[in-house]
Specification:
It is built from eleven helices and no strands. The protein is an all-alpha fold. The chain starts with a helix and ends with a helix. The radius of gyration is 28 Å and the shape is flat.
Length: 298
């Protein structure tokens, strides 16, 4: 009972501290205020953020205290940008899953008690804490995995895009015309993001490699930023860009092949574990009768 009261007191204190931090946020320092006044306005984001979903509406009241606690963090925020998902939606999903996990174990314990199965009260307490922690951290792991897969997909699409840009440049087109024509021929969300970057360049009357570099920064794909810098040299200093883009595409293809080979080797290693377990079980199945007969004869 003492442990239960301590856990309840710790949960009450943590909740009260989060409520106070949300209700009375710390005031910014003078240096931060001056930096905010002198900071130039940021360029509009190319990737849009989706704020919909039932979890967002249900967990919106709980997302505010989590945001006041500097969540979801820098790395998770970058992954959310890649997935075009708003941080408020992610925090609301974390809060809803954590609350569901917190209530699930006591609910199951109560149902079992009504059915006549009485379990120790410690089980629902630790089960609720464990399920709440799992519901709170599992969305971060899912976002990381999905963002990594999406970046890999973008790199594959970028390789094809560079090939088409190189072909257009070989046909005598300019850099900007080659970028726009190659973006129109592709399909999928990767080419759609590139087209949005080029459209943002036309609307803001800036160079297309500037918005492509911004897209690389938002996606956290450094190779796209390097390509944008190469195109900037071609646009400002007249450097030869076709050979450089061709070498970048070749390097991306080589990296994709290396990653695919490493993934296949890891899959092969994972497949060997079930085979070893099956072989060990088979050997145990064969050896058990002989061992049982030998032990009974003693």
């Amino acid at each position: 009972m003492t442990v239960y009261l301590m856990l309840c007191g710790a949960g009450f204190g943590l909740g009260f501290a989060l409520i106070l931090r949300w209700a009375f946020p710390p005031s910014p320092t003078l240096a931060d205020a001056l930096d905010a006044l002198n900071r130039p306005p940021a360029a509009p984001a190319i990737l849009t953020a989706d704020t919909g979903g039932w979890a967002t509406r249900l967990g919106a009241p709980l997302a505010g205290p989590l945001a006041a606690a500097n969540l979801p963090g820098v790395k998770v925020a970058k992954d959310l940008v890649v997935l075009e998902r708003a941080p408020q939606r992610h925090l609301a999903e974390k809060a809803v899953l954590a609350l569901f996990g917190l209530l699930l174990a006591p609910l199951v314990w109560s149902v079992l008690a009504l059915l006549g199965t009485h379990l120790p009260w410690v089980l629902p307490v630790w089960g609720a804490l464990g399920l709440a922690a799992a519901g709170f951290y599992l969305p971060d792991l899912a976002v990381k995995s999905e963002a990594q897969a999406r970046r890999e997909e973008f790199r594959h699409a970028l390789t094809a895009y560079l090939d088409m840009v190189t072909i257009s440049l070989s046909g005598g087109a300019g850099v900007e015309a080659a970028l726009a024509e190659a973006a129109r021929t592709g399909e999928g969300w990767s080419f759609s993001a590139i087209r949005r970057a080029l459209s943002a360049a036309r609307l803001s009357r800036t160079a297309p490699w500037t918005t492509l570099g911004q897209l690389g920064e938002e996606l956290d794909v450094p190779i796209l930023q390097e390509i944008a810098a190469t195109m900037a040299l071609a646009g400002s200093e007249g450097a030869k860009v076709r050979a450089s883009l061709a070498s970048k595409a070749q390097g991306l293809r080589a990296q994709a092949l290396a990653d695919a080979d490493a993934a296949s080797q890891q899959a092969t290693e994972r497949m060997s574990l079930p085979v070893i377990c099956m072989f060990a079980g088979f050997m145990l199945f064969i050896a058990y009768p002989a061992m049982s007969h030998a032990m009974s004869a003693l």
